[in-house]
Amino acid sequence: MALSLTLPKWYDLHTHLRQGALLKPIIQSQLDMGCCGVLAMPNTKPPAAKVFKDDPLAYWSIEEYRAMINAAGGDQFDDFITPMYLTKDTTPQMIEDGAKAGLLRAVKYYPPHGTTGADFSYPLVDLLKTDVIKALEDNNVTMCIHGEEHALPGEAYFDRETNAEEFFYRERMPRLLDAFPNLKIVGEHMTTKVAVDLVLQAGDNIAASITPQHLIYTVGHLVQGFKYHLFCLPLVKFDEDRAALRSAVLDPNNTKFFAGTDSAAHTVKATDCGCAAGCFTGGIAPQLYAEGFEAAGADLSDAQTAKAFEAFLCRIGPNFHGLKISEDTFTLTKTPQKVYKTPTDDGDITPLPIGLGHDSVSWSLSL
Ligand code: DOR
Ligand code: ZN
């Protein structure tokens, strides 16, 4: 009989649900892969960068974005977190009022102009001159961080000795931790050994999300034939980095590294002047994570290994974010499952395996 794992429904703690015609099919793809909830990133157009609808700032509010998500099927989730996008207009008062109203549980820092939808963000060095981060710490609001330094020249952005993520985790993150020792931080979509090591050495107030693509692939897989469906930010890195991610998630004592797919739909990946960053893994992320564990040498038929997998996918993240573990379950079975594109009124979304020339995954999922 094929190996099967029955797991609590899980929270995808870093995803992009988008908006408009994409919202409904993407939420459905999250439900289809056993999610009982998500953390939905705010880099919409306009960004979700204020809490209340009646705030006059010209952004979407968390209130409005939550209503859109609920109307498009998000009401089927047990719970979902909608972080607020940090901009030049964010104030400590917004943080305090949002937290007191129970609407604001997290915020998102983007490196200005550093990735898809990051054009409204405000540099960390400037944020540090305000009382915004103090307000996060005081109100127990989690700071979700896209940890890459912005505006670096090409040589420093991605080079043999350094890259934008390493710069951020060497130069910026230690200062943030020193200045705000009780701030809850998630280092999102971690890709480098430097970042993993920092999280391992820091206190329990800092944790990290890991995507399937960063567990499975290296930059070599991207550049060999330029497989642009694997182009996401931060970029997939080197074997040594992937090994650090793998050993962090396989550790039976892991309490800090959890699943967050960064599933980011683009109906048009290759553009006239480059390529949109983002890998879509909606519908198939648990299967890809299982493949990632196996590629790292894990035997998921071993009870202790299966426990580490369950902790990574279903327990560590909700524990960190204060979400209730679901009593419902879903099952992964070691039999291949065919993968399909997700049709939307804005065009098809190509999931990662198809973008890499594979039309199936080696695990199947049933609800
Ligand atoms: O690859 C990425 N895609 N990285 C991000 O930070 C944003 C995301 C998106 O929204 O497409
Ligand atoms: Zn993201």
Name the CATH superfamily classification: Metal-dependent hydrolases
Q: Which ligands, by name, code or SMILES, are bound?
A: (4S)-2,6-dioxohexahydropyrimidine-4-carboxylic acid, zinc ion
**CATH topology annotation:** TIM Barrel
The count of β-strands is: 18
> Any guess at the CATH architecture?
Alpha-Beta Barrel
What overall geometry do the principal axes of the alpha carbons give? globular
Helix content: 25-40%
Largest sheet: 6 strands, parallel
Entry keywords:
alpha/beta; 3-stranded antiparallel sheet; 6-stranded parallel sheet; TIM Barrel; globular; binds zinc ion; 367 residues; binds (4S)-2,6-dioxohexahydropyrimidine-4-carboxylic acid
Please give the structural blueprint.
Elements: E1 4-8, E2 10-15, H1 23-32, E3 35-40, E4 48-50, E5 60-61, H2 62-71, E6 79-81, E7 84-85, H3 92-100, E8 106-109, H4 124-127, H5 132-138, E9 142-145, H6 154-157, H7 164-179, E10 185-187, H8 193-201, E11 206-210, H9 212-216, H10 219-223, H11 239-250, E12 257-259, E13 270-271, E14 274-275, H12 285-295, H13 303-321, E15 329-333, E16 337-338, H14 352-355, E17 360-361, E18 364-366
Parallel strand pairs: 2-3, 3-6, 4-5, 7-8, 8-9, 9-10, 10-11, 11-12
Antiparallel strand pairs: 1-15, 13-14, 15-18, 16-17
Helix pairs in contact: 3-5, 7-8, 8-11
The structure holds (4S)-2,6-dioxohexahydropyrimidine-4-carboxylic acid (DOR) and zinc ion.
